[in-house]
Design brief:
By secondary structure, the protein is of the alpha/beta class. It contains six helices and seven strands. The chain has a seven-stranded parallel β-sheet, with helices on both faces. Strand 4, helix 4 and strand 5 form a beta-alpha-beta unit. Helix 3 runs parallel beside helix 4 and helix 4 packs parallel to helix 5.
Length: about 240
């Protein structure tokens, strides 16, 4: 038995990378899972592995970039599975100079990395407030604090997420809801292989997704009278 046993945890971006490893870490800790991602097949692969721990796992294929549908879709899921812990992990990488950035690209990054997070939060908060308990964990980035050329849209989205998390923590504290923001350094995930990221780093020196997952698990596992409000996890070699 752990503090997470039978606690219902919703994880976005759960089909790969940090989200996948977080799902498996929480399953090992005894948490029931609701997994959100775009690929139904990849979600089911993660769910099958997580169920080997004897926990309940439900999957929902949902594109959070389609922000107009996010709040209602997540609210319907939360009505079926009251959410104790929300891990907002879904996001996209993007590189490009601010001076030439198309408006559509800027909006796409902000929509997924920031606006969809707000909508997921709005969908689960009523239930958390009713129960006077809940934990919301937002996955930001060291890029939200640092100035990396050609990472402007991504950095702004993550800086906004850090600020959102701090304000939300102050607003929801009276309702018994804890808010955590975790900012990893570079993590070796499939984000580096996407079409919107053009970067050439030594991925062997990056954090691995399971290390970040363990940090998320630790933050969620604290007793209800304590909270890690802000946590930065870096590769031991520093920022790339």
């Amino acid at each position: 038995m752990t503090l997470l046993t039978n606690r219902c945890t919703l994880i976005t971006g759960a089909s790969s990378g940090i989200g996948r490893e977080t799902a498996l870490a929480f399953a090992e800790a005894g948490a029931n899972l609701v997994l959100i991602g775009r690929s139904a097949d990849r979600l089911e692969e993660v769910a099958t592995k997580a169920r080997q721990q004897g926990v309940e796992v439900n999957t929902y294929s949902l594109d959070l970039a389609q922000v107009e549908q996010v709040r209602e879709a997540i609210a319907q899921i939360a009505a079926r599975h009251p959410i104790d812990i929300l891990v907002n992990n879904a996001g996209m990488g993007y590189t490009g100079a601010l001076a030439e950035m198309p408006l559509a690209d800027w909006q796409a990054v902000l929509n997924l990395n920031l606006t969809s997070v707000l909508l997921c939060i709005q969908a689960v908060l009523p239930g958390m407030r009713d129960r006077q308990q809940g934990t919301i964990i937002n996955i930001a980035s060291i890029a939200g604090y640092a100035s990396f050329p050609d990472w402007g849209a991504y950095s702004v989205s993550k800086a906004g997420l850090i600020s959102l998390s701090k304000i939300l923590a102050a607003e929801e504290r009276p309702h018994g809801v804890r808010v955590v923001v975790i900012s990893p350094g570079s993590v070796n995930t499939p984000i580096w292989d996407t079409d919107t990221v053009q970067a050439d780093f030594d991925r062997s020196k990056m954090l691995t997704p399971d290390v970040v997952a363990q940090s998320i698990l630790h933050a969620a596992s604290l007793p209800s009278h304590a909270v890690i409000q802000e946590l930065t996890v870096m590769p031991s070699g520093g920022a790339l």
